[in-house]
Amino acid sequence: MNTPSLTAEDLLAWNDATAESWHALASEHPSLLQIPCDIHNSTTVGQLLQHIVAAELRYAERLSDAPATDYASIPFATADEIFATHRRALEILKNLFQNPEFDWNREIEFPTLTAGKRRATRKAVFQHALLHSIRHYAQLATLARQHGIRPAPSDYLLLASSPA
């Protein structure tokens, strides 16, 4: 049976395209980082972007059996600082793809900021890390528009299609 599926590579590409779009927007409109924001205990958009990239990096580190970077040490003063963390996370994840011995079905145990200690397959952690980012970027798009800053569309279909 032929079923539609979103591959890990597809998800990684969508996440990266979305992040790079937000990097460009925050670079063009640095005031975006100071807009008040109450999503996930943040007080500014910059802090929410820190949360997004921190989750990506810390989950990538856990997947690779490396110690997780201290959340508070992840910078968020500028767009370049924020998205350098995103690029670090993606490099770790891409390196895992290169290892044919990497067991995506192996369960790992990890602490979370909101749900205590959890256990899940590496595959589930990978998918969560990237979809978590997409979800928060969608929330930010509404907030940015309410403050007169118009983000580019980030729908998956726009990435996966071409003009007819």
Automatic annotation (TrEMBL):
Keyword Metal-binding: yes
Entry annotated with the keyword Metal-binding: yes
Binding locations of a divalent metal cation: H51, H132, H136
GO molecular function: metal ion binding
Source organism, top-level taxon: Bacteria
Keywords: Metal-binding
Family: Belongs to the DinB family.
Protein name (database record): Putative damage-inducible protein DinB
Organism classification: Bacteria, Pseudomonadati, Acidobacteriota, Terriglobia, Terriglobales
